[in-house]
Amino acid sequence: MPAFSAPDGTRLAYRVRGEGEPLLCLPGGPMRAAEYLGDLGGLSRHRRLVLLDLRGTGGSAVPADPATYRCDRQVGDVEALREHLGPDRVDLLAHSAAGDLALLYAARHPGRVRTLTLVASRARALGVDFTPAHRREAAALRTGEPWFGDAHGAFLRIWDGTATDADFDAGTPFFYGRWDGAARAHAAAEPAQTNDAAADAYASTGAFADPAAVRAAVAALDARVLVLTGELDGGPLPRVAAGVARLFPDAEAVVQPGAGHFPWLDDPARFTATVREFLER
Question: Of 130, 126, 133, which Cα lies nearest the Cα of 71?
């Protein structure tokens, strides 16, 4: 697996899928190894995916200072990867919790971003959060699912802070548009791919200290932006994602029908077509 050095000397690894112009991909979780992104539903047939394992995950080394797991302190890692790869400006894709990292990167290095693709992404860096009410609203869309009765109570407990480990397992179907074999396998791999201690530190105090400054920076961003969300996802709800898109000067919000938090699994062809069309426009 290829690797490079972060500004603090931590050795960081990345995966490469496909050929052609690079698309830098930041995984969510938070702090889940990039393996779970796979080839993003076949997007690797059209772009060379450069999938970064964030520090302390996958093939990347554990840093000497665990405080560097904090999201804002990983912005330098993304810039080091860009410098390692060579292009002056990059196409950047971020999923879920990595949306915050991508936003902070764009705010700090606006001239380095050519396009930004935010997939089911968080936006705490902009002062936008996803509330328990949002999650309940999305969950109510799934009442017809055969697993709804067993999973609903567990899912609500996740967001009110009373969940057990069993509840986290039982509530997992809500994150997927289709709770089939592929989704089950994808979910089952999550514990082994996630650095829990790093995840706890990722959004710790100070990570998103100045959302007004980040909003001001992205309001002047000279880059095209795609904000893609699943119709059935509560983090973000489609209307919340549309609000995030309005904070950029050149952005579009796309809702993928029938998709949850991992839209490239729910409908690979639709996901790939949407992202490819945006990148190639």
Answer: 126
Distance of CA 195 to the CA centre of its chain: 15
Q: What is the pTM of this model?
A: 0.97
Q: Are 99 and 29 in contact (CB under 8 A)?
A: no
Contact criterion met (CB below 8 Å) for 57 and 36 = no
Tell me the pLDDT of the chain (281 aa) as tens digits.
999 999 999 999 999 999 999 999 999 999 999 999 999 999 999 999 999 999 999 999 999 999 999 999 999 999 999 999 999 999 999 999 999 999 999 999 999 999 999 999 999 999 999 999 999 999 999 999 999 999 999 999 999 899 898 999 999 999 999 999 999 999 999 999 999 999 999 999 999 999 999 999 999 999 999 999 999 999 999 999 999 999 999 999 999 999 999 999 999 999 999 999 999 99
Alpha helices in 9-147 (DSSP H): 75-85, 98-108, 132-139
Domains in the chain and their CATH numbers?
3-127+195-280 (3.40.50.1820)
